[in-house]
Protein 1
Amino acid sequence: MARSAKQAKPRQSGLSIPSDVATSLLVLVLLFVAMQIIPTSSRRPWDFETYWYATSAASAGLSPYDTEALARLAQRPFGMPFIYAPVTVLLLMPLTMLPIASAALVWFWSKALLLAGLAVLWRRRFLPEANPALIAAVAIFGFNAAAVWDVATGNVAIVEQALLWTGFAAYAADRRRLFAVCVVAAALFKLFPILFLVLLLAPSKRSEPSWRLAGVSLAAFLLLVFGPVLAGVPWARGFLQNLPAERPWGEVNPSALGLIDTLSGSHTQPLFARPYTLLLAWAAYIAVVIAVSVPTLRNLWRRRDPVTWVFATAVLYALLVPRMMVYTYLLVLVPVLALVSPLARRVGGITLVGALLVAQALAKPWLGARYQGTWSAHLAFLMLLGFWLVYLAAGAATARPAPGATAR
């Protein structure tokens, strides 16, 4: 594990503007290619359309959480509600300055360029020795082509990841205030990323746990998310009443809870409904994952390495949150490459791990695999869990005394 952390630490050597440009261009080219060959269930950017009509409704004095109002604006049935916090309506408002078709095009290209910049950030700050072609391929095809799903649906995931990884880069440089700002901003849409504030409670070689900053940041987040509701803004109340009754499952939500829902066929059953079978199964899984991870987390605590803390926390977040949508797997591309590839250095290292991440997406169109089975639909989650267990096992082996050694 010491070798893994050493190789994962960000460095600036060997990087240049030409390599950054090459990485960006490869991302854009591969994104275009991938959108032609990677099948998704999206026939239109339905998430973006929800954002556009929701903000248009708010501009017209209507509730963005009222699907009937959205249906009247769209002049068609509207089955996908707007579920983000009221403050995000203001953030998305500039999109309504353009007709929806033009706004969708601007949204697409903005996110494509943001993804290219994100790939440059990954390579420059976290994987400086990686080949630009490998980084670009993993950014586009990694984990069931998460990036393709995002741009196809028009989701906000790439924006969220750009904020998070800007924050992670700040955290690695011990700029904790900037990290906190980025996490709060990233969490305004899907809320769960606010859990990354826990990184402020971990020490580094230059910083002690930042309890006060974590508390202030959490308070600011809660005020931004729930402030309009508490202030009595009439349409803001719909935020608390508009949570979907049906949890996403199958290929679009490859996660532990998604797999449990698929196996039980109970994705429409409330998680806290009696006899609490789903809740207990999910809680048991969480308990097991945390229990087997504790020795490694203790070792990371002693080493005070913020970069490896970022990687480990990102993977655990993805393994434990209830709603790990397919496009959110952008979060764990770099952590998997950084944590696992040093363990496979004898058989190809980062090239092998990157090829495994890419192969999952390419197998779908080339082999006709639609990932509609119970287990294949959650292949991204199962792969991530496998990578994490390999990393934990390698750490446990490193921590064991050598044969014949005596305890002191």
Protein 2
Amino acid sequence: MWPFTKRKPLEKPSRKTQDLSPDALAKSAERQDLFALVELFLVRRIETELALEEKRAEVKLKSAEAEAQTKLKLAELAEQRRQLRAAKMAERNRTAPRDAKGRVSAMNRPNGCAVCADPASPHLTVDEIRLHHAAGHSNGSVPTSR
């Protein structure tokens, strides 16, 4: 016989030949119940996590839809403002007074008054300032009521 082979001890019979004791049967039933409870707990936990994930996805979808609606509305408002500005400019170009060369004159001047438009301008003439006061316009940043 080979000297390095391991011999089985004869004191302990193999498990195949052992009879199951009532304690072992009870413990195995308890274990099966515990495993079933753990499995049920895990299944319920997974179900709740999936439900929460679905709710999160719905909230994300709704918020994305709301954001898209907001962006669309802002784009519409910007387009309306652009069209309004273009219409105002077209109206100004049609109705604004022109100088001898056909250029729009006094475009930035309220009521065509150069002094009201820029009271600190060095290009104002004495006649423009006299006409400004004669028309009863205010003195710009200086309050008229004392």
Protein 3
Amino acid sequence: MNDEKKADKKIIYYIISGAALGAIAGYIVNKVGIKNIIDAMKAKEIIPEKIADTISEFTSEEHEEQFEDEE
């Protein structure tokens, strides 16, 4: 039974720490901007250029306007 409580606490700590890391990452993306992050990743060749272009295509304002016009 004691091992079961330790496992439960460990799972809860993982969930809480994951939520905290997600909140921090979201805050950074909000402040820095997704375009700047993608440009930096392109420059350092962390992600291939084709994938970065695809991501940029989905995050562009033109794409968002297209969805708004369809509605």
